[in-house]
Amino acid sequence: MALDQSVRDQMSDIMTRYPEARSAVMPMLHLAQSVEDEITPEAMRVIADMLGLTAAEVTAVATFYTMYKRRPVGKHHIGVCTNTLCAMLGGDAVYAALSERLGIGHNERDVDGTFWLERIECQAACTHAPVMTVDWEFMDCQTPTSALDVIDRLSRGEEVVSTRGPVIRDFQATEHTLAFPVDGLAGFGGEADAIMRAGLTVAKERGMSAPAGPEESG
Ligand code: FES
């Protein structure tokens, strides 16, 4: 689907949220990706025209950040963290199992367009390593078996729920949320659990506090 007038109206709405319209470039790209599951050259031209930027400036943003894809992602984006902590705790094995089952490698889409697989960087979720994301929703503490079960259930059209609460929708729905984060879903899902708060809990038990900053210490 091309970026029709209704999409351009939504982009205009996004632009009003920023003192400088050009600051809207990233959510506008997410909106484009929610419509087409990729960032097309046409989308970059439309956004550049609306923001008064050059196509090269918008292209620079779309090619720098890895969440923007210039090939169709398909229905579900599967990310597997293989940074140090996740890798040590099994992230590489999770990635290998998914890669073998889907027959694709890093930044590739399967033949029927259901799954895109990607090795992703640290998601700041190391307390629950190894971490997988499905359409950017967390699946914590994965094993090869649990990860394969997730994609099998998605393939069968069954409901899959993130280990943190939200129901998995699809890649384009998540992209729309990234463009319009005030869709009521921000507070949906679990709060920080005891493992995430472990450091804070220990610090409180021991009466520890952060050192004073330069202004406080005079
Ligand atoms: S290393 Fe995987 S979430 Fe941090």
What is the element layout, followed by pairings?
Blueprint: H1 5-15, H2 25-36, H3 41-51, H4 55-64, E1 76-81, H5 84-88, H6 91-102, E2 108-109, E3 115-120, E4 132-134, E5 137-139, H7 144-155, H8 171-179, H9 198-205
Parallel strand pairs: 1-3
Antiparallel strand pairs: 1-4, 2-3, 4-5
Bound molecules: FE2/S2 (inorganic) cluster.
Describe this entry's structure for a reader.
With 218 residues, this protein is an alpha+beta fold. Helix content is 41%, strand content 9%. It has helices at 5-15, 25-36, 41-51, 55-64, 84-88, 91-102, 144-155, 171-179, 198-205; strands at 76-81, 108-109, 115-120, 132-134, 137-139. The protein has a 5-stranded mixed sheet, with helices on one face. Helix 1 runs antiparallel to helix 2, helix 2 (25-36) runs antiparallel to helix 3 and helix 2 packs antiparallel against helix 8 (171-179). The chain is globular, with a radius of gyration of 20 Å. The termini are far apart. The model has no long low-confidence stretch (mean pLDDT 94). The chain binds FE2/S2 (inorganic) cluster (FES). Residues 81, 83-86, 122-123, 125-126, 129, 131 line the site of FE2/S2 (inorganic) cluster.
